[in-house]
Amino acid sequence: MDEPTSVLTPQAVESLFVTLRKLAADGCSILYISHKLEEIRALCESATIMRAGKVTGNCDPRRESASAMARMMIGADIQAIRPARPAAEARRERLAVRGLTLKASDIFGTDLRDISFSVSSGEILGIAGVSGNGQQELLAVLSGETTLASAETINIDGKPAARLDARQRRALGLCSVPEDRLGRGAIPSLPLTENALLTFNRDEVLRAGFIRFDTVRDFAERCIQQFGVLGGGPDALADSLSGGNLQKFIVGREVLQEPGVLVVAQPTWGVDVGAAVAIRQALLDLRARGAAVLVISEELDELMELADRIAVMAGGKLSPPIPRSEFDREAIGLAMTGRWEAPVPTTEAARVHST
Amino acid sequence: MLWLSPLLAIALTSVVALVIFAAAGRDPFSSLVRFLFSPLGDLYSFGELLIKAAPLILIAVGLSVGFRAGVWNIGAEGQLVLGVIFGGWVALNYGPSGAPWVLPAMLLAGAIGGAFWAAGPAFLKTRFNANEILTSLMLNYVAALWLSYLVFGPWRDPMGFNFPQSEPLAPAALFPIIIEGTRANIGIIVALLTVALSWVVLSRRLVGFELKVTGLSAPAARYAGFSARRAVWIGMLTGGVAAGIAGVGEIAGPLAQIFPTASPGYGYAAIIVAFLGRLHPVGIVFSGLLMSLLYLSGDVAQMSLGLPSAITGLFQGMLLFFMLAADVLIRYRVRWRRAVPALALEAAR
User: How many CA atoms lie within 13 A of A203 on its CB side?
Assistant: First the structure.
């Protein structure tokens, strides 16, 4: 099996594991491929660790700590450094969404139902949920790919923004990273320099309306250098890069524009562990510089590592956010199935935090 | 590899030309040489080549702006006709005054006419998402009928023995000749200036990048905040303006009069020119010259090879066909697979 749990809730993972253990007990051999170390430790009796196409170690995962295995996997310590949050009085609301309801334009889409939340400076809000519960629609509404009729529904730094397109929102300081890299976040047949121009095209890049290609190129080189993008430099075509390197480039492109608000979908999807750590660190650093960061992810572990608060999306609705001190895999997993009103004990507390 | 496909298309078209000449009982090689090179024999013919290339290049450059963004304006022929009508109106009414502003006013009027005719499909596309290929194409016939009405009716030359044609245009309404002894006029300069201008705008200004992104990937354009509607308007209007000016160039140039058929299909041929030139302004200069040569060669075919001049349309069509085929085959590999037996499908389930 190759990464079988990537779209499952924690409860579903648990029942999958029960089935797998039963199969193994009946004498079936199971080869299980995953980059989620906790799963390997919970499930497997022996593990082979690979890095860059080579075997780097063998161990019994039940006896090894996750960090020791991670070290074998990437050759270094992987824990991202989590800078302290700015003091409460220094925080201000940077992204606010109020009463967002939207009928899906696609017949297979999900309607968004009465979504309200806010993200303040120096904060990462995580949005968890099983794929297809309205995350894509929410991202499009936030990034400006979908515009709304009433401008007040979305506020960026207090300015109504729901009617603005993506470029106008970027001028207000909202950048976004879409979940599909090729064909949305980057154009496969264009070199990285021109892919940098895709979103890095504000006034400083233009001289009397003409593109300053040297400035764009410098910027692309900065993305490549600071985010360790391997594969050919600024003239390499986007589709010649590996998924992880392209993702680093796209995240770099958005983060280096120093947005006040960053909306990121699946920041480390299909990305190798080393790149994932670099990307997460970049998000945490951006938070420490006072930006408001919204992370939409299907990987609960990632959100629990990054987020200050986590809200859950199910059936086009968003649960009240749960603060970091009350993170609980079980409760969040249950919420992913759409049941957060009654059984989540932290609801009251969360509501206080969310306003 | 893709830059090669225009050359491949030219080579394949030549091969088919050889076959056609042989099938018609002519010596294929000498016929092809005569077909291609006799129009270039003297200075006058060279002027003719330029005169026909100018509108093709001008229109193709205008169309390529839209084509880059995936805006398929097939209505250049009608937009050209509107240029003839608007520019012709200025020429007929103010040309006899001999004022120096007549010619610039004709160009401006022609541009407005072409843009006006392109605005219809652009509006229908952006407002109702109506396919611009169909709407712009159908408007070609409407435009042709309007011109016929005018030339058969109000604009008919009273001294013209009842032929459907306008009065000859006044000298003030005609393009100056730039090469003595030929009909080559200033329209060529207009076309080359358009090439230079569009090259700079498309490669150096943000709007050129916006159009390119819109054409390559609609989701990426939306993500970047480049408006698809804006691209439709820019693409359609640029094509309309260019075609309208080309229409003025016809009546102010070689025709010097307004006829019901103002264009020998330049609006359609320019589509081929644009693609053959890979939508690049400089490439379009070369493909425009080649297509112009084919027009002249059609006359050669008729006069000295005894073949119908419709052979021009045949070769133009083949060029586009072979180039599109070459593009597909360079980009994709064709694989023949045996049909999967039903039993295997059953087993796979």
Answer: 3
Q: Which uninterrupted H or E stretch holds A98?
A: strand A93-102
Report phi then psi at A57, rounded to 5.
175, 160
Q: Does A180 touch chain B (CB under 8 A)?
A: yes
Task: Tell me the pTM.
Answer: 0.82
Q: Does A181 contact B at CB distance below 8 Å? A: no
- What are the CA-CA distances from residue A27 to residues A195, B71, B241 (Å)? 52, 61, 76
Contact B319, B10 (CB under 8 A): yes
On whether the CB atoms of residues B95 and B241 are closer than 8 A, the answer is no
Read off the amino acid at residue A132. Answer: G
A184: nearest CB among B223, B225, B227: B223
Length of chain B: 349
Phi and psi at residue A258, in whole multiples of 5°?
Answer: 50, 60
Whether A257 has its CB under 8 Å from any CB of chain B: the answer is no
**Farthest CA pair distance, chain B:** 87
Query: What residues of chain B lie within 8 A of the CB of A209, using their CB?
Result: 205-206
Question: How is residue A293 written in tokens?
Answer: 């960061």
pLDDT in tens, B154-166: 999 888 888 888 8
Distance from CA of B303 to the nearest CA of A (A): 48
Q: How far is CA B329 from CA A176, B262, B279, B318, B335, in A?
A: 37, 38, 19, 16, 11
Closest CA to B187 of B59, B37, B40: B59
Chain A residues within an 8 Å CB radius of B219: 145, 180, 183-184
Catalogue all structural domains in chain A, each as residue range(s) with its CATH number: 10-74 (no CATH), 88-354 (3.40.50.300)
Burial of B231 (0-12, 13-18, 19+ CB in 10 A): buried
Are B220 and A185 in contact (CB < 8 Å)? yes
Alpha-carbon span B315 to B304, nearest angstrom: 18
Any CB–CB contact under 8 A between B229 and chain A?
A: no
> Helices in B69-186 by DSSP H: which ranges?
76-94, 102-128, 132-152
Which residue carries 């750590």 as its tokens?
A277
Bridge-based pairing state of the strands A322-323 and A309-314: antiparallel
Sign of CA dihedral A45, A48, A51, A52: negative
In chain B, domain spans: 43-286
| Rounded alpha-carbon distances, angstroms, from residue B294 to A99, B35, B76, B258, B317 | 64, 9, 20, 24, 11
Which of B205, B213, B217 faces A210 most closely, judged by CB atoms? B205
Task: Please state, for a pLDDT cut of 90, what percent of chain B lies above it.
Answer: 63
Rounded Cα distance between B185 and B195, Å, is 17
**Alpha carbon of B64: minimum distance to chain A alpha carbons (Å):** 19
- Enumerate residues 6+ apart whose C-beta is below 8 A from B133: B72, B74
**Are B227 and A206 an interchain contact pair (Cβ–Cβ within 8 Å)?**
no
Say which residue the tokens 């075609």 belong to.
Answer: B243
The CATH number of the structural domain formed by B43-286 is: 1.10.3470
pLDDT (tens digit, 9 = 90+) per residue, A232-276?
789 999 989 888 889 999 999 999 999 999 999 999 887 777 788
- Which tokens hold the place of B120? 């219809």
- Chain A interface mutation, best of B199, B223, B229, B278, highest count of A Cβ atoms under 10 Å: B223
Phi, psi values for residue A75, rounded to 5°: 80, 10
Q: How confident is the model at residue B51 (pLDDT cuts 50, 70, 90)?
A: very high
Chain B partners within 8 Å of A206 (Cβ): 206
B279: left (phi over 0), alpha (psi -120 to 50) or beta: left
